[in-house]
Amino acid sequence: MQSEKENSEITPVVDRPNVYKGLFKDLDYDNINWRKSYRMVIERVIENRFKKEWQEILRFYGRNIIVQTLTQEMTYIDFDYIDDVCKFFKIRKEDMNCYAWNIGRKKRIQQKNSIK
User: Fold this and answer.
1) Distance (Å, rounded) from C-alpha 46 to C-alpha 24?
2) What confidence tens digit (pLDDT) does each residue in 49-101 have?
3) What span, in angstroms and rounded, lies between the C-alpha atoms of 93 and 25?
């Protein structure tokens, strides 16, 4: 039987999600504080559109943090894939601040264009 020390040497604990390193090429990847920088990490992974990585951030951060970030903290999600995000994370786009903001922005642009 292996000792606890031997087991920890075999499978090191990594306190970061297993996501594509290239998403963070402008940062010092090895020194990112993955817990404190959750919003930035979630935003970049969501924008990347790979559902495998969406699953990984879900595993790492948990559903509550992901849903809070998507509904209350993110300021932008591309309309081309907002439905995919909502379906994957089981949320309504109407509950997302960024969706409401983008709808309001579209209406303001339409109003501005109709006045011209």
Assistant:
1) 13
2) 889 999 999 999 999 999 999 999 998 888 888 999 999 999 998 899 888 76
3) 30
